[in-house]
DNA sequence: TTAGGGTTAG
């Protein structure tokens, strides 16, 4: 056999790089060693160094470099560029200085790499030294070098140097202008970006896909829908009409401007064949940004049919889950993250901490937080927010201190969490102290959310009048949340007169919200002012505000059982009623008195007691007690807030039956155990907006814990009251029994059928999947 | 005849 030519081998190594295949790279390396004499030529060595460093196999690349003779600037630049490519900027500098130690001079290819490294590491002084070196060698005149130096100055915040660099450039090309516009946008100088774009067009420049994307970002940041629409028109007339990345930029732009309909239009225009993972992510992010979390989850499930999940996609959908309180879907997405090896990603990790914190699984949030190799402010905020959610002021404050000891400065969001933790825990003095030191100590101007926290803090602790005085002295206009906090406190402490003031402000600011009307009428009702309460209810009806219908549901085996108030339609109704009667007797003995304040009509006491007694969450709980094995926690979900009576009743029941009961309402989680609730009797005073429609109930995704064990996610989808199982690609698994068999390890055929729905890009991937499968099965068997 | 700049999503 003739030895393959160096050119052919070089091309094969390039192929290995472009397909991210270390396997191919190593195979070609082996072929080279078999067919070529040692020492290898510099040409082949350079290719090998490049291949290994691009594929992030730095040890191999360094070893190859040490064997290369002579080592030229090409050898070194191959290694350095690979480091930069894999964001190993410090290694890039290490090799750069090793190169200089061998007296090898950097060239026009080396400088862009090291400029990028210093820009990314925010090292302006190193950047300046490099600039001096590039001036001395004359490399700065090169358009690539000049552009990357300009980019470095922009990214390290040296605006004057950046501008000088741009103005002194002998040549500018499309990339230079793109870099200019992009940095202007990132710097918040959007008008400058627009001016540059116009100037670029004036000097006869022809924009490309990147120019459009970057420019659309400027439009989105200025929320200039009009300008963006003009650019859209421009794009439609250009040859970038069909360009996927430009379309993705448009989806993002419309999403940021709140025009979700246009985002969807652009998305659907791309079509199935051409849309890529970024298209899906942009669409997903646009929905999340516009608070369409349920649709975002649906889009995510559809995206899974076409593309492999990325860290971007997973973190976006996790934030949708967190907003919805969708612990089950969130857990299955966590499993996907493990499988996709992105669970350590900064954004994914932060989103997981946020999800578990918001869903009340604080131990899980702590675990993810502790295990994250890298944290940023968002991560810390998510964890502090988790403690705030629980009302654990001590943990929230100690983490806040710890964060400062790591040299991380808090921001607006951090202080909202810290203050809300104080208010939930009734830590009035500490809360006020932190609020007063916001400007001086942390340099943060208090915003509406901070004021709302303080109103809540004062009001909740009974200082309702002081809270009102505080509002009157506010330097900014009080928002819905500020008045909402006051109304809630008034209801809590029976301050009807002040409550009326707050309610009237709320009706002005947010006339369509049913929650405010409900809280107000309930406040009047609990003060015995039934006539006025009835008037508010009538007003609500007259202007067409309806109180949302409450549902509670509980999952038992492979079915979700949904209940409404006074529901008697369930097939086990007689057993449910018997259970309720039994509980009622035992609770009465334990000292339970029905809290009828929240039953909404002017009824006799006896009738009111029975109204609250038949709330949907109590019926769901009674059913759970009948249907779920003893010792198993009962998880109930409710689309509205849990009422005070049910909250008190479930505390009693948790002690009587010795069971853990977890109720997830539209606002938060309640973890009942031995007569106590994790919320410490606080569950927010927010509006009574249902967190989920019945639509999502059908889409509700549940997940058995076994799936998390092996990092394999199956979606259990509720459809028509039946639980169905779906693979990650959205393929329906026929028969729950088969899946069970598969986990029992009884049927290899069932397992392989299950796996038909899972795409395997190459054999290695498939083997890994099988490995996961076997491991999870072993772990599952070990646990029973 | 091997190495390079600007890049849409959170």
UniProtKB/TrEMBL annotation:
The keyword Repeat applies. Pfam families: DYW_deaminase (PF14432), E_motif (PF20431), PPR (PF01535), PPR_2 (PF13041). Signal peptide: none annotated. Residues 591-683 form the DYW domain. Transmembrane segments: none annotated. GO terms for biological process: RNA modification. One of its GO terms (molecular function) is RNA binding. InterPro entries: DYW_dom (IPR032867), E_motif (IPR046848), PPR_At4g14850-like_plant (IPR046960), PPR_rpt (IPR002885), TPR-like_helical_dom_sf (IPR011990). PPR repeats lie at residues 72-106, 345-375, 376-410. Keywords: Repeat. It comes from the Eukaryota. NCBIfam families: PPR. Belongs to the PPR family. PCMP-H subfamily. This is DYW domain-containing protein. The lineage of its organism: Eukaryota, Viridiplantae, Streptophyta, Embryophyta, Tracheophyta.
């Amino acid at each position: 056999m003739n030895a393959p030519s160096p050119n052919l081998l070089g091309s094969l190594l390039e192929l290995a790089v472009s397909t991210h295949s270390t396997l191919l790279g190593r195979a070609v390396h082996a072929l080279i060693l078999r067919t070529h004499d040692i020492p290898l030529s510099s040409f082949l060595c350079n290719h090998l160094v490049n291949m290994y460093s691009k594929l992030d196999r730095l040890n191999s690349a360094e070893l190859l470099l040490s064997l290369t003779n002579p080592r030229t600037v090409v050898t070194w630049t191959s290694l350095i560029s690979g480091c930069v490519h894999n964001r190993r900027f410090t290694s890039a500098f290490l090799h750069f200085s090793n190169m200089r130690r061998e007296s090898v001079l950097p060239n026009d290819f080396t400088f862009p790499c090291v400029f990028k490294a210093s820009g990314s590491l925010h090292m302006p002084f190193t950047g300046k030294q490099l600039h001096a070196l590039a001036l001395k060698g004359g490399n700065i005149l090169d358009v690539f070098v000049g552009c990357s130096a300009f980019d470095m100055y922009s990214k390290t915040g040296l605006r004057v140097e950046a501008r000088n660099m741009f103005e002194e450039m002998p040549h500018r090309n499309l990339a230079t202008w793109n870099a200019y516009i992009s940095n202007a946008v990132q710097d918040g100088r959007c008008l400058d970006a627009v001016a540059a774009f116009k100037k670029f067009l004036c000097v006869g420049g022809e924009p490309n896909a990147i120019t459009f994307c970057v420019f659309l970002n400027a439009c989105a940041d200025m929320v200039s829908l009009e300008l963006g629409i003009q650019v859209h028109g421009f794009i439609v007339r250009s040859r970038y009409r069909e360009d996927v990345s430009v379309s993705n930029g448009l989806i993002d732009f419309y999403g940021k401007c709140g025009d979700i309909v246009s985002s969807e239009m652009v998305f659907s225009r791309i079509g199935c064949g051409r849309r890529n993972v970024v298209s899906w992510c942009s669409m997903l992010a646009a929905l999340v940004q516009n608070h369409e979390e349920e649709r975002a989850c649906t889009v995510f499930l559809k995206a899974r049919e076409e593309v492999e999940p990325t860290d971007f996609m997973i973190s976006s959908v996790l934030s949708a889950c967190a907003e919805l309180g969708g612990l089950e879907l969130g857990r299955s997405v966590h499993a996907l993250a493990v499988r996709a090896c992105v669970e350590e990603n900064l954004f994914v990790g932060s989103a997981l901490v946020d999800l578990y914190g918001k869903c009340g699984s604080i131990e899980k949030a702590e675990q993810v937080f502790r295990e994250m190799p890298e944290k940023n402010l968002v991560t810390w905020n998510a964890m502090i927010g988790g403690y705030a959610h629980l009302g654990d002021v001590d943990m929230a404050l100690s983490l806040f201190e710890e964060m400062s000891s790591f040299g991380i400065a808090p921001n607006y969001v951090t202080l909202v969490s810290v203050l809300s933790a104080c208010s939930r825990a009734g830590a009035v003095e500490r809360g006020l102290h932190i609020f007063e030191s916001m400007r001086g100590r942390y340099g943060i101007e208090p915003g509406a959310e901070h004021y709302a926290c303080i109103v809540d803090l004062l009001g909740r602790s009974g200082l309702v009048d002081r809270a009102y005085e505080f509002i009157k002295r506010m330097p900014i206009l009080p928002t819905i949340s500020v008045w909402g906090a006051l109304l809630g406190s008034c209801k809590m402490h029976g301050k009807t007169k002040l409550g009326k003031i707050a309610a009237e402000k709320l009706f002005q600011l947010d006339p369509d919200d049913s929650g405010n009307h409900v809280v107000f009428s309930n406040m009047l009702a609990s003060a015995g002012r039934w006539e006025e309460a009835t008037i508010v209810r009538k007003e609500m009806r007259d202007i067409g505000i309806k109180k949302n219908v409450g549902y509670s549901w509980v999952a038992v085996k492979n079915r979700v059982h949904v209940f409404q108030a006074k529901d008697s339609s369930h097939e086990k109704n007689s057993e449910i009623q018997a259970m309720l009667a039994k509980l009622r007797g035992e609770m009465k003995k334990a000292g339970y008195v029905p809290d009828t304040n929240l039953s909404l009509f002017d009824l006799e006491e006896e009738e009111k007691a029975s109204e609250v007694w038949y709330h949907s969450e109590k019926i769901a709980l009674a059913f759970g007690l009948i249907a779920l094995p003893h010792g198993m926690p009962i998880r109930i979900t409710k689309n509205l807030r849990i009422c005070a009576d049910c909250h008190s009743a479930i505390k009693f029941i948790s002690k009587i039956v010795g069971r853990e009961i977890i109720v997830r309402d539209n606002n938060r989680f309640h973890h009942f155990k031995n007569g106590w609730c994790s919320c410490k009797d606080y569950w927010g005073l927010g509006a009574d907006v249902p967190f989920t429609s019945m639509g999502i109930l059908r889409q509700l995704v549940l997940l058995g814990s076994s799936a998390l064990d092996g990092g394999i996610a199956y979606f259990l989808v509720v459809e028509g009251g039946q639980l169905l199982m779906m693979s990650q690609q959205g393929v329906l698994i026929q028969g729950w029994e088969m899946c069970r068999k598969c986990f029992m390890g009884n049927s290899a055929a069932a397992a392989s059928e299950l796996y038909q729905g899972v795409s395997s890009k190459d054999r290695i991937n498939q083997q890994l999947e099988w490995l996961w499968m076997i491991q999870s099965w072993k772990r599952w068997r070990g646990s029973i």
